[in-house]
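We close this part of the discussion by returning to an individual protein. The sequence in question and its structure tokens are set out directly beneath this paragraph:
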Amino acid sequence: MTQSEKFERGLKVRREVLGADYVDGSIARADDFMMAFQTITTEWCWGHAWAREGLSRKTRSMINIAMLTALNKPAELRLHVKGALTNGVTVDEIKEILIHATTYCGVPAGLEAFKTAHAVLVEVGALPATKSPPDTASV
């Protein structure tokens, strides 16, 4: 498979998981410098890893939530919580992933992940809005 074919395959999967508006916007905003990253992520992450048949997209989403919690990367976690919902991961499954990840990654990383996921789930209507946001202070 050529790099161009891998990019096209990755672009298709990426759009299906993250949404065409998000993906197309990211690519449209990329200048020559950032397009290098867009190419890498589209080919490697989406055209190679995500396009493989060995794991379902749901399983890949669950793994990503745990890994992004471990890495304490809330911006990417936010994106992948949305993608996980698209891939059939339930709110309860997201909660259980975060509980499990908190146990192994530590409470500060877990707190950040729970706050990020909660905000996304409220934003997309998967959870009801609360009268006040969850505590944003550390525990």
User: Anything to note?
Assistant: The two ends are 49 Å apart (CA to CA).
